[in-house]
Amino acid sequence: MGMISRVRGRIRSDSFSKFQTIKSEDKIANIVWLISLVFLLPYWAPRGLLVALGGAWLMAAYTCLVLPLLISVNYRYPARWYPAVVKLARKVARRLHSPIAYLLGILKTAYTPVDRAERLFLQMNNLSTMISQLLIFTACDRLLVYRGRLTCLYSLMFYNVITYSVSYVREICTKEDWSPYVNVTRHSRVKHLAMSATKIVLEWTKAVTFIVTMTFILLTLGLEQGLEHFRPTILYTAITGTYYLLSEKTFLELWPIALSALKLELLEGMEALYCGVWARGITTAIAIPLVPALAWNERWRLAVLIFYICVIVHGRHRLGEALVKLNEAQKSLARFRRATSEELSTLEDVCAVCLGTMKSARVTPCAHFFHADCLRRCLATSDSLGGVVASMYGCTPGGPGFESQVGPSLVIESFCIVSLSNNPELGSWRCFTPVPRRARKAVGPAPLLSLVVSSSRPTGV
């Protein structure tokens, strides 16, 4: 009996100690939760208590030290009511799913005219770009420049002058017709007197404007004579200059050219698509932090305008369209594997579309090599691509009687079209006039002229 009573006592003491442990853990979890609220109170103080005491650096240091500590402690001692709250929240969200979906449908229908107006605003490319630039420059003027109320206007004017100079130099470098005369018609040699005089005056006006503009810019920079209210800082110039270079149409056309000069094989000739995504992404990223900074300084109207025009409208439409185009291009090329360096070294051939050398290529299911961008452009215009090698005489390349019927100079240069259907095993193919290998560069790209055969065969033919 004594042993039984001792065993019962031990069981009771163990259960009581476990109960006490659970109760103490609940107390610790509740204490941790309450202390976390206390540590978060400085963020809710009016006008920012930490900023008022020690500036933004004190608030940043407090955030870096306190937030990780609170997260780790709450993870170590979670309150017992956390799972119940999460379960209740999921239940409420499940019940509110259909009403919220119905409400979102109504809001989407009501937002349709606004969306149409936004797209119409973006179609006026020069106006929408200038308004977004002016808003960003004004925000940087209010935040980064001390008593420089006209700095944004002077900066925008200065950047526009540089843009005009760059566009004029580009026009001179890419100009092909240097004749000062204008003919009556395109194929006539008779000079149009009035139009020729107008063209000469216009060209001289452009040249004089460019020379005067560059002279004044050099004098301003050389003599260091600043304007009355023009006091830009280094940070202001860096932000506004970056935004302008990535949003102005003239420079957006130059960035892909500069990037293609680097010949990065990773981009596969799609520099224009990547530059569009990068430029829109960086400009949107520049505009986002300006919104809370303006709201902190009680510039509510400017903050709302930048958030709507520069973040929502430009980010949702222009950045969204650039991302959609890039994703479509990557999806269309995902079906074709990349050619290895060994395959390209043994190929010793050129792209059948652009007749350029191939340092990187994509391989079609019929073992043909194309530049990724050339292949993407072909697939963008139609669901077909240059693929199967065949003979207009109906014999298989490399088979018996092929060279005797076609001749050694016409071996393996007939172009066919493989339509990519939903069934990967089948596809329609059409053969075209063969072109000699030695005469391919003289003929030019894509000599798909005369239709010879049309039938349905597997793509592996």
What does this structure look like?
- This protein has 461 residues and is of the alpha+beta class.
- The chain is extended and about 125 Å long.
- The protein is 64% helix and 6% strand.
- A four-stranded antiparallel β-sheet has the order 4-5-6-7. Strands 1-2-3 form a three-stranded antiparallel β-sheet.
Give structural attributes.
461 residues, alpha+beta, four-stranded antiparallel sheet, 6% strand
- Number of helices in the DSSP assignment: 16
Q: Give the count of structural domains.
A: 3
Q: Give, in spatial order, the strands making up the sheet with the most strands.
A: 4-5-6-7
Q: Could you estimate the helical fraction of the residues in percent?
A: 55-70%
Overall pLDDT level: 72
Instruction: Show unreliable segments.
Output: 386-461
Cα radius of gyration in angstroms: 35 Å
Care to count the β-strands?
7
> Topology as H/E string?
HHHHHHHHHHHHEHEEHEHEEHE
The general outline is extended
Tell me about the largest β-sheet: 4 strands, antiparallel
Pfam families: zf-C3HC4_2
GO molecular function: ubiquitin protein ligase activity; zinc ion binding
Protein name: RING-type domain-containing protein
Domain RING-type: 351-381
Briefly characterize the structure.
Helix content is 64%, strand content 6%.
Secondary structure layout:
Layout: H1 2-40, H2 49-54, H3 56-76, H4 82-95, H5 97-123, H6 125-144, H7 151-174, H8 193-223, H9 234-247, H10 249-261, H11 271-296, H12 300-333, E1 337-338, H13 341-347, E2 362-363, E3 369-370, H14 372-381, E4 384-386, H15 402-406, E5 416-419, E6 426-432, H16 440-443, E7 451-458
Antiparallel strand pairs: 1-2, 2-3, 4-5, 5-6, 6-7
Helix pairs in contact: 1-3, 6-7, 6-9, 6-11, 6-12, 7-8, 9-11, 10-11, 11-12
